[in-house]
């Protein structure tokens, strides 16, 4: 009886994500062409909320970087360490050492994402969109665009 009620409730809720998926607000999209060349960043949504996209459910725990495939934050996607902008040139040695550690962690996140993308692209070699994302990273990602 309870299971049937839960089943019926689930079916009445039309806006639920399918199993293994979730709706996530994404504020920016990276637009590349079919050859992996960076074209632009597109803002989605407004200044406070991004546009909702259906993506694979993401779960992170532990110290090992776990990238979200084709949606993630700037550390994973662009190898950008936000702490780097906060540290002054004349910072003490302890602050510089901590920054180096943060940069290394950020780089590991980026490498993990690229490896995951290449792994999936190798499983589906006929998918030109996956190949374009691999090409984007092979060319140096956003750094190559500047």
Please describe what this structure looks like.
By secondary structure, the protein is α+β, with helices and mostly antiparallel strands. It has 6 helices and 4 strands. The strands form 2 sheets. A two-stranded antiparallel ribbon has the order 1-4. Strands 2-3 form a two-stranded antiparallel ribbon. Helix 4 (93-123) packs antiparallel against helix 5. It is globular, with a radius of gyration of 19 Å. The relative contact order is 0.15.
Overall 3D form: globular
Strand order of the largest sheet: 1-4
Strand content: 15-25%
- Helix-strand makeup class: alpha+beta
Would you identify the regions where 5 or more consecutive residues have pLDDT less than 50?
none
What value does the average pLDDT take? 89
Element order, helices and strands?
A: HEEEEHHHHH
What's the short story on this structure?
This protein has helices spanning 2-12, 74-78, 82-86, 93-123, 128-138, 142-145; strands spanning 21-26, 28-32, 38-43, 51-56. It has 146 residues and is α+β, with helices and mostly antiparallel strands.
